[in-house]
Amino acid sequence: MEDVILEMKNISKTFPGVKALSNVDFALRKGEIHALMGENGAGKSTLIKVLTGVYDLEGGSITMAGKNIVNHSPEDAQKNGISTVYQEVNLCPNLTVGENLFIGREPRKGLFIDWNAVNKRSKKLLDDLNIEANPKKLLGDCSIAVQQMIAIARAVDQNCKVLILDEPTSSLDDDEVAKLFTLMRKLRDNGVGIIFVTHFLEQVYEVCDRITVLRNGELVGSYEASELPRVQLVAKMMGKNFDDLADIKSGHENKVDMNSTPVIDARGIGHTGTIHPFDLAVHKGEVIGLTGLLGAGRSEMVRAIYGADKADSGQLYVNGKKVKINKPLDAMMLGMGYLPEDRKKDGIIADLSVRENIIIALQAKKGMFHLMSRKEMDEAADKFIDLLQIKTASRETPIKSLSGGNQQKVIIARWLLTNPDYLILDEPTRGIDVGTKTEIQKLVLDLADQGKAITFISSEIEEMLRTCSRMAVLRDGYKVGELSGDQLNQADIMKTIAGSENGGSENAK
Amino acid sequence: MQSNQSKWSRITHAPLFMPIVCLIAVLVLNVIQTPTFFKISINNGVLYGYLIDIINRGSELVILAVGMTLVTAASGGQDISVGAVMAVAAAICCQLLTGGQKTSSTLAMPIIVAAIIGILVAGLCGAFNGFLVANLHIQPMVATLILFTAGRGIAQLVTKGQITYERAPSYKVLGGYIGKCPVPTPIFVAIITVIVMQLILKKTALGLYVESVGINGSASRLVGLNSTMLKFITYVICGLLAGLAGIVASSRIYSADANNIGLNLEMDAILAVALGGNNLGGGKFNMMGSIIGAYTIQALTTSLYAMNVSADQLPVYKAIVVVIIVVIQSPVFRDKIANASKKRKAVA
Amino acid sequence: MKKAKLSKTGFLLLITIVMFAVMYIAGMIIFQDKGFAKPQMFLNLFISNAGLIVIACGLTIVMITGGIDISVGSVTALVCMSAADVMENKGMSAVFALFLALIIGLAFGVVQGYLVTYLKIQPFIITLAGMFFGRGLTAVISTKMISIKNKMFLAWANEKMYLPFGYTNRHGVLVHAYIYPTVVIALVVVVLIQIMLKFSKFGRALFAIGGNEQSAVLMGLNVKSTKMKAYVLDGFLAGLGGFLFCLNSCAGFVEQAKGLEMDAISAAVIGGTLLSGGVGTVVGTLFGVLITGTIQSLITTQGTLSSWWVRIVLSIMLCFFIVLQAIIGGAGLKKKDKGKEKTAKATT
Amino acid sequence: GCGQATSGGKSTSSSSSSSSSASSSASKGGSGKSVTIGFSQVGAESDWRTASTKSMKGTLSSKNGYTMIFDDAQQKQENQIKALRNFIQQDVDYIALDPVTESGWDTVLKEAKDAGIPVIIVDRMVKVSDDSLYTAWVGSDFKAEGNKACEWLKQYADKKGIKQSDINIVDIQGTIGASAQIGRTEGLNDAVKANGWNLVAQQTGEFTQAKGQEVMESILKSGKKINVVYCENDNEAFGAIDALEAAGKKVGSDIKNGEIMVMSFDSTNAGLTDVKNGKIALDTECNPLYGPRVDEMIKKLEAGQKVPHLQYIDEAMFAKDNTIPTVTAKNAKGEDTKYDVTVVTDDVIKGRSY
Ligand SMILES: Nc1ncnc2c1ncn2[C@@H]1O[C@H](COP(=O)(O)OP(=O)(O)OP(=O)(O)O)[C@@H](O)[C@H]1O
Ligand SMILES: Nc1ncnc2c1ncn2[C@@H]1O[C@H](COP(=O)(O)OP(=O)(O)OP(=O)(O)O)[C@@H](O)[C@H]1O
Ligand SMILES: [Mg+2]
Ligand SMILES: [Mg+2]
């Protein structure tokens, strides 16, 4: 094979109770974008971590430009010209944006770090990539999307031969993704080999030259992207035929009675500094989507309803009754559930087992003195592991050792278990593979059919169009419009998001 | 063969395995040094022997370790004021019993009432710590530093700077023996504390809540847990238990010695938690581990006394044993050993 | 908007400095007639705490990585005792004693650093063992006090450096204020470490590790060697600080510097260092030392409190200070901090 | 500008007394300026210490023409150094220091001397390179305490016809490194060597009842023969007695018939009560009442008189009966001194405030 710059042979990796990789081969050519595909838990991230020395190499070999290498740590990997963006944003929240970009390779003047240069170069780097962030700002104060972009910026700025991107696009919106792709193509043209992990099939076909598919820790095969039709790719990933474009909405008629008392009726709810007062009504059986650009305040809107950030203005009516929500538990008691956007920070309780992570919300609702019996817990856990096909060694496995997508499924299970009347899903499909994504969308519609009210947030407009019966549009912390029925199409949504030239806060209601 | 091995590995990976091994190791060391170490006899109508000493003398430490485990799990920090809080509880209890006298051989009020008041005041101290940590988000070690310094001062204020003696025989019961029962009372107190705590952990969701809050506070809040309240509660429990330990310690010497009751015990309690395999950074905890850890420390102290190690060198031995224990407990070290033995097998 | 520019660390540092200034000036006004306004009174804060400043700087470094070192008090005692012993009993020179002090500190740093970094044992426990070990070893060298009479050493200790200002005494004579060389050394250490923290790769890596150790690994930093170096440097500074401490007390004895670790930790924390890591400055730590020193000084100047009230008032003032800092700091940073408290932990 | 501090070759006591008498013309009872004295106390770690503080504060009170600036060092030498520096800045007339430790005072005492403030050391001794750094010392002779207690035991054994080699003694030491522990342990060690006693065990009880009890328990379990327990303070003795009795031993002075003799130091109220009950055979006093002695010294210094550089405070011995009425033992300076043994009566106990 010509121009192979990185080759992995016979890679295996075992975790207690899981064979994450068995005898996987992988080859990356110079100047190609190579997609690494597979379901949640297929072993993509593990392969990357073995490659970059986060995990020890248990067997097999890695050659780079014909030379055998062993990376004992990401530091080694970087020295060998491999730079990586890992799946979860892995930066330091207590350092500034600029520092995160340059730490470990700071420009120096003599012995000292040249902070001016750091800031200047950061500014330039951020500007080049169109990232709106001040280099002097603390990273922890930036939204995840920005953090994600910064992680990418850090990786691409290093003169690398191999760039690895593990689901970099999961929290980016289309604009950002487009920016990233331009960048990736440029790097490819400069001869960098790129490994790209994603669950978005369109993206794969948009930028990738070749595709390697993993399933259950085993290599399925490597293919030219042009020679592998989409349906076949999915089939290879899942090991069975599957049509991800199935019109899942059919069979779910919209039976929402818009005149009934809304389950949730927010009037003038707002939270200073994040979301301006807004009105929002959600009815039984309805899936309402929130859309807007990055940072438009979708998450903030639902956080204010749920009491994650206590609303400081307006009133909330639940089933027509005025209620006061001071803390999330109040909302839960009123039948709400909230799947947060930032899985790592607000979702998983890392050291607890899958079982405990699933039952924790229900247990909190029941109160301290009504401990669920072990049997109840086990049954609940097993039911959802089965239902959502969560890939885990056992229900007692700590959630932190699950793959990213499977962690997300556990959090979804947590909220389904509480059987809420009103469920808020903020990016529920982030990092979830195609098969399951469809399952989740179906689930959402099923729940609506059962008479639950749902608010759904996703960066994928496609996905929203498939599930939502109504959409609210946000811009800069204001709710700027609401669309339903025929208006639910890409063009109209885009128009509303962009807004008219002069109207900042017109209300389409 | 296969199943044998997996059974063995299941045992060795059980959470309590290492703490128990360490305790046994310390005890075995004793038998070599002091052959009579395990001898238990009835002397003067009571049980008598080094083993009894360990279990008896370890009681206060066990009680403290229980509270310390909860605090550590919930807040990822330690309460270093427990020793001083013990002194406060003892001072209040004794002053109430002597009716403000320096020495008394009668009781100014029923022991149970005085003891409960003492314990409640200790709980109040815990509440103070809890407020600082949970509500004001002050780092635990610093928040509890306040009572660590002030506690003995308060105790002295209560006892007017002198040791208060309550010489009524009934006050000696808690730290001594109940009637003709040959088993020292502190053992019962410790066992009851442990049982009650185990029941609470088994029958309520406290344990799960505490772990959850300790691992990820913001996620816990979003699933409806009141992390402020939970942290606060653990500190109150820790305070109450410190109070109980203080009263037991005071009863042993039928007096309140503000300067010395529980002196340096906070460090031992923290050590017990760590030896029990718990992460001092909070999160998942193992109560039985801490209790075994506490007895391990007491076994060590008693053993060194039994071997007549001179007191000034005692900390050196203690340090060495502690390091050995934590090193063999360390997963990294165990992995290394496992790898080495695997390699040796492969060679053979 | 302007204020938002100030980083979180800068904001906390500013609060600390302002609060110190307010407290000191208040003291100068209240106790004007008691000499509190004299420049020497202020300089004494540095003179008496030179060793502590250096030790607390070392501690700040490991605290920034999210670690802790509670062995520093014992190391100080060991350093003083060894220095005294070699000079008085072995006839060595003061230079040798200084050397020995640094070696002892380094040795502690290397061993503790290795255990913490490479065997991943919790720093609290390792350094607790270090604390026992150091204290025990001190007693092994000698249980008696050794006072230092070495000429060169005493010359170092008593070398006053007069400053061009002072106060006019009751006879109208200008008494020059003075400092000792220890103060200069301490201040130089503060400046050097602050520069290192801000402007060196190593310094920034410390912050990255404290912010999120796992991320630091993934970003390609050499976490192990950085942490190891942090502990070695901490050990070195403990040795140096111990020697400065010794210059102040000119003696070695077993009970020396007991509880110094708590003083150092609280100084660092009051100065804005987080025990959970990732945040801290040594300038803040310096002010932390000055603040606790001033509180003590105010109480001494007042001079009518009974022993136990001294402890209580000391802690009330400490409490007041910590709480005020938490409230002002908390209010100023409220929005920023929300829900962020455990991000780092969820991953480790 | 760095100048070298030079203090004139004058002896401290004379230079300081003259400077202070110049500064405060009126002293006791005078309506004018009172004498300011800074007192740095060790802490409040025991009843004994509390009594000592009370004595100082009571005597050197405003009623008697003093202004006292009191500082509690909480057992930390570094705190005392800070306090002394503070006193110097406050321009006190005198400094009284009850040092936490014996050594480590050179620098700060030199500062006091440079400032012309006389320093009176009480209780524990200080070791400094230059004795003129302090004006006077008054305190206990711990070594002598040990010596005389052991001498008493020797004579007691002789009188009761017990062979010296039959004495099996346990030493429950004080906190290691404390001067009281050092002196009392040394006294015992010397006597053990001289008289051929068996030192069965030596372990610290850290001056507390709880530790004393725990250590005694442990020693008893070793099964060795014991007939004398030498406790280095009263609290340890209480603990040891409890442990002995719990193990079914009889505590008393009848060694021949299997009783175990407990000896102790300090002579607190509670200790003397146990002497009277026959539980403690001999309690050697350690006198905490320094107030009057310091008062006396300052009055002399104010009047321009000289005071002795070193003075020992008088300390008695207490026993249940007068089997041995007096003992002769060496004091710290190695001189033979005669000490009386007081028989404890209710009056003696009542007279003890601490
Ligand atoms: N640290 C770990 N300990 C134990 N098991 C692990 C650990 N990391 C991963 N696994 C397991 O290894 C398998 C592969 O995980 P991996 O993270 O590589 O999946 P992935 O393909 O990246 O999935 P996703 O698309 O969800 O990110 C999973 O079954 C997971 O549970
Ligand atoms: N590019 C950015 N630069 C600076 N701050 C941003 C940026 N994006 C978001 N923010 C901040 O984050 C807040 C909300 O962001 P967030 O991403 O949570 O909104 P969102 O509408 O939920 O978007 P998404 O869920 O797609 O990330 C905004 O108020 C803004 O202050
Ligand atoms: Mg992955
Ligand atoms: Mg969002």
Automatic annotation (TrEMBL), chain A:
The keyword Transport applies. This is Sugar ABC transporter ATP-binding protein. SUPFAM superfamilies: P-loop containing nucleoside triphosphate hydrolases. Residues 6-241, 258-501 form the ABC transporter domain. It is a peripheral membrane protein. InterPro entries: AAA+_ATPase, ABC_carbohydrate_import_ATPase, ABC_transporter-like_ATP-bd, ABC_transporter-like_CS, P-loop_NTPase. It is found in: Cell membrane. It comes from the Bacteria. Keywords: ATP-binding, Cell membrane, Membrane, Nucleotide-binding, Repeat, Translocase, Transport. GO terms for molecular function: ATP binding; ATP hydrolysis activity. Gene3D superfamilies: P-loop containing nucleotide triphosphate hydrolases (3.40.50.300). Pfam families: ABC_tran. GO terms for cellular component: plasma membrane.
TrEMBL record, chain B:
The chain crosses the membrane at residues 16-38, 50-74, 80-99, 111-132, 138-158, 179-201, 232-254, 285-308, 314-333. One of its GO terms (cellular component) is plasma membrane. Keywords: Cell membrane, Membrane, Transmembrane, Transmembrane helix. It is a multi-pass membrane protein. The keyword Membrane applies. The keyword Transferase does not apply. GO terms for molecular function: transmembrane transporter activity. It is found in: Cell membrane. InterPro entries: ABC_transp_permease (IPR001851). This is ABC transporter permease.
Automatic annotation (TrEMBL), chain C:
GO terms for cellular component: plasma membrane. InterPro entries: ABC_transp_permease. It comes from the Bacteria. Keywords: Cell membrane, Membrane, Transmembrane, Transmembrane helix. It is found in: Cell membrane. One of its GO terms (molecular function) is transmembrane transporter activity. It is a multi-pass membrane protein. The chain crosses the membrane at residues 12-31, 43-64, 94-115, 121-142, 177-197, 231-254, 266-292, 312-333. Pfam families: BPD_transp_2. PANTHER family: ABC TRANSPORTER PERMEASE PROTEIN YPHD-RELATED-RELATED, INNER MEMBRANE ABC TRANSPORTER PERMEASE PROTEIN YJFF. This is Sugar ABC transporter permease YjfF. It comes from Candidatus Weimeria bifida.
